[in-house]
Write a structure and sequence with these properties.
The protein is an all-alpha fold and 406 residues long. The chain contains 16 helices and no strands.
């Protein structure tokens, strides 16, 4: 009975972790389809409206490191509770009267999302046995993308029926629901050690526990693993942001494809990443190998991304983007699982490494769309710029340098 209760709680935690980050994706990108309404109500221009999304990427480039450090001080559970409260601010933001209040609110909301995604891998390592982690890692990896896809599908419909404020409020209420569920869980795993110098009168102290606490964030920066895994993740995320930012413009300008159709192409690309990640997670779990799937992503993604840009056949675009979207998410589970399986890893060290990982990936990947825009303004063609960007999708191959059990 105790084993059953423990197993049920583990599954419940995994569902809540997934659902909370899905709800974050709903509120994050839920503003994009209603930019015209936001510009009118907040009296802002397009560049200001874009910052309502970019400000969250900025938060996600800064606070993952802080989340990893904070988790070692107050524990994973307490850090995630703070994160859940910040994500739940999404319910209030639609009713703020001023654009700059929106920016502050969205930034704090983004901080919550940054903290949550940083610790999802640590929680998975804490509560799941190694053989079950690949599937959970894959689901965690597509949670926000699932939310983003749903927001593209339903925001306009809901907004037309109930108004944009009510729609965004509903997304925030979804976050509050998952936050309450998370608070009901209690403690996840062991609490952090408060001190490492206490004396056990029975002479029965465990020497290994203090060492876990003594492993500081600076120590993780000295590990080659930290940088190999960080740059391995960077390419697919950077390409994801570049394509979502610039492919619609490229298709409209070069192939005269209507705006609504190009948005549907982006939905297609994002949607295909979900089954690709889940199937990959199942395969990694079955075959207990990560590197073949990492290599597969490093081959599939650059090829189909390049073809998606260079094709002149409109009928091929949906198929090419489906493979491109799949390629972006194939490496999620194998990369995370490979990191978790490295020697001497534990949830707190994983949390600190993922803090660096998400900061590095979001800093670098957030710069790439801007760089494309800079050269686009200098009259370079989007075809050439996006073709060059396809090369960065090779980055998962960097993780092949990490060790894997035979």
């Amino acid at each position: 009975m105790e084993d059953t209760k423990s197993s049920n709680k583990t599954v419940f935690i995994a569902i809540v972790m997934f659902g909370m980050y899905l709800s974050f994706g709903l509120s994050w990108m839920g503003v994009a389809p209603i930019f015209p309404e936001l510009k009118k109500d907040l009296s802002i221009i397009q560049s200001q409206a874009t910052w309502l999304i970019s400000i969250i990427s900025l938060a996600k480039s800064i606070f993952p490191i802080i989340a990893g450090i904070l988790a070692t001080k107050i524990g994973i559970s307490n850090t995630l509770r703070i994160s859940a409260v910040l994500i739940s601010l999404g319910v209030l933001i639609p009713w703020l009267p001023d654009y700059y209040m929106w920016l502050v609110g969205r930034f704090l909301f983004g901080v919550g999302g940054a903290m949550w995604v940083t610790l999802m891998g640590a929680v998975t390592m804490q509560i799941f046995e190694p053989e079950k982690r690949p599937l959970v890692n894959s689901l965690n990896g597509v949670a926000v993308n699932f939310g983003v896809t749903l927001s593209y599908w339903y925001t306009l419909t809901l907004s037309n029926s109930f108004g944009w404020k009510s729609t965004l409020t509903f997304y925030g209420l979804v976050s509050i629901a998952f936050a309450l569920l998370f608070f009901s869980i209690g403690q996840i795993g062991a609490k952090p050690q408060v001190t490492t110098t206490t004396t056990n009168n029975n002479n029965n102290t465990e020497e290994e526990k203090p060492k876990e606490e003594e492993f500081t964030y600076l120590s993780t920066l000295k590990l080659p693993t930290t940088w190999l895994i960080s740059f391995a993740f960077t390419g697919p995320l950077a390409l994801y942001l570049v394509f979502n930012s610039w492919l619609p413009t490229y298709y409209q300008e070069t192939m005269n494809i209507p705006r609504l159709e190009t948005i549907n192409y982006m939905v297609l690309m994002n949607a295909w990443g979900i089954p690709a990640a889940v199937i990959t997670g199942l395969l990694v779990q079955k075959f207990k190998k990560c590197k073949p799937f990492i290599l597969l992503s490093a081959i599939v993604l650059p090829i189909f991304a390049y073809l998606s840009v260079t094709t002149t056949d409109k009928t091929m675009i949906p198929y090419l983007l489906a493979f491109t979207g799949a390629g972006m998410f194939i490496p999620v589970s194998p990369l995370t699982t490979l990191l978790q399986s490295q020697p001497n890893m534990n949830p707190r060290i994983i949390g600190m490494i993922l803090g660096t990982l998400f900061s590095v990936t979001y800093i670098v990947s957030s710069m790439i769309p801007g760089i494309v825009g800079y050269f686009y303004d200098l009259k370079y063609t989007l075809r050439d710029l996006l073709s060059i960007c396809s090369i960065i999708a090779l980055s998962p191959a960097i993780a092949l340098k990490l060790s894997e059990k035979k």
